[in-house]
Design brief:
Elements (H helix, E strand, L loop, with lengths): L4 H22 L8 E4 L4 H13 L4 E4 L3 H6 L7 E4 L1 E2 L4 E3 L2 E3 L1
Parallel strand pairs: 1-2, 1-3
Antiparallel strand pairs: 4-5, 5-6
């Protein structure tokens, strides 16, 4: 079977689309459930996270900037709980002040 260049390109495109569709679907589907995001990793934030999990067992706690955060954050549909430190100047994320 002799394919022309345009047929090869079309075939590669069709195969790429078939392979990528499940990934597109997986990364565009909304994430249900309650989620809390830890902005830092100190004792007070860890204690707050544990208290949330004790009182709301179905809540998922993820770390800001983690692989899981980057996979889920843009797809979460429930209200989020942000756990961190801050004042009138800004918040602290991973030990850095954000204004």
């Amino acid at each position: 079977m002799n394919f022309t260049k345009s047929k090869k390109i079309t075939l590669v495109f069709i195969i790429a689309m078939m392979v990528s569709i499940p990934f597109i679907h997986a990364f565009s589907t909304f994430v249900p459930g309650m989620v809390a995001i830890q902005l830092d990793k100190d004792d007070a934030i860890i204690n707050a996270s544990e208290t949330l999990q004790e009182n709301i067992p179905e809540i998922s706690v993820i770390e800001y900037g983690s692989f899981k955060y980057h996979l889920m954050a843009h797809r979460i549909i429930q209200p989020l709980v942000w756990i961190g430190h801050g004042d009138e100047v800004g918040i602290t994320i991973n030990e850095e002040r954000q204004s």
